[in-house]
Amino acid sequence: MEHNILIIGGNGLVGKTIARILKSRNPQLNIFIGGRKGGKTNKDLKIDVTDPNTFQAISDKKIDLIILSVNDKTDHVLQFAIENKIDYLDITKPTPDLVKAYSIAGKKEVNSRIVFSSGWMGGIVPGLVNVLSNNSIDVQEAKLFVYYSVKDLAGESSAHFMAENVAVPFYRYKNDRPVKIRHFLDTETFDFSFGVGKRSAYNFDVPDLYILNKIERISDVSVKMTYNSKFITWLLGGFQYLRIFNILSLKERRMIFGSSGNGDQSIFEIVIKNNNGYKKLSLQSTKGQAELTALSAVLHTEELLRNPHESNVYFSHQLHEPLSLMAQLNAYETININVTQ
Question: Signal peptide span per the entry (predicted)?
């Protein structure tokens, strides 16, 4: 069966990476690239998420699955996909936008697969938590520690997200209740794998906080991040403690978070506590954050194409058997996974 896949935001860093990996693994697919400016080939479609009038091209090309790799704050693409019974995978939304979109989809009659995914780690974290425990209900606590390098390739959307949200409080969960916190505060020392060593890690907001608590029903959930530069990590903590971010303009905050290197490793580590004690899963992406996010999107896409999941609203980890998801990640040449007791 022929499948027509549209990557909206396909000219951005993550979108291009999704297209590259998806084409290399599935040469039989028809892959279209959607962007505000269109392109030079018949596979380049002019799609502007802020202008639903441009969506006619989606129907004209008989698109089966939309992969959204640009943040559609108005959810026009989501609503178009639902109304036209098109499968939909969103890998971009920060927590507040994800919660809003999930609520919108939950109130609609859905006749396709509508899939939401955490943009930071590609929606794989809850699935990997379930690798560590047979039942997430048995997990008493889940902690996620992220190592991010300023040398890594970074897309514009990542910088914009941090610039827009760094001064906005968010929630972690304790005893099944939300606890309001801010980025880059509440230091915790963590011994990172893959040669990184002990680092001070600070509060960081990713949608997995919401997903692990509200969907997987884990009562205590937190996320902390450190940069490869100890000085930068300390400096951002100082800026937040002194509330300097609150007085900077959006443009100035974008300049702070807008740097991008030529590529570096990205690491995240999951630590869970259940009745059997603590377990840890460590994942390294040697080609960085964008490669990991794009690979995750490809795995979700392949799962949707391969298996007859019913029409419904999903978070991306719910499509996969946890051990199968880990095996597929580990089989990719730039991903390394270790599990320790």
Answer: none
Residue type at position 43: K
Q: Which amino acid would we find at residue 132?
A: L
182 shares a domain with 82:
no
pLDDT for the residue numbered 136: 66
Decide if pLDDT at 254 tops 80: yes
Q: What's the pLDDT at 236? A: 92
Name the average pLDDT for the chain: 92
**139 three-class SS:** coil
- Looking up tokens 């059997």 gives 276
> Which is nearest to 93 in space by CA: 257, 238, 211?
211
> Does one domain contain both 234 and 129?
yes
DSSP assignment of 63-119 equals -SEEEE-S--TT-HHHHHHHHTT-EEEE----HHHHHHHHHHHHTS---SEEEE--T
Q: Which distant-in-sequence residues (6+ apart) come within 8 Å of 14 by Cβ?
A: 69, 91, 155, 157, 290, 293, 294, 297
Sheet of strand 312-315, all strands in order from the earlier edge strand to the far edge: 44-46, 30-35, 4-8, 65-68, 87-90, 113-116, 312-315
Reply yes or no on whether the pLDDT at 155 is more than 70. no
| 304 and 209 within one domain | no
Distance CA 108, CA 263 (A): 41
pLDDT band for position 106 (cuts 50, 70, 90)? very high
For residues 155-166, give the mean pLDDT: 76
User: Measured at the alpha carbon of residue 27, what is the angle toward residues 322 and 45, in degrees to the nearest 5?
Assistant: 100
Is 291 a residue whose pLDDT tops 90?
yes
The residue range of the domain holding 250 is 125-288
Structural domain tally of the chain?
A: 2
Query: Do 196 and 310 share a structural domain?
Result: no
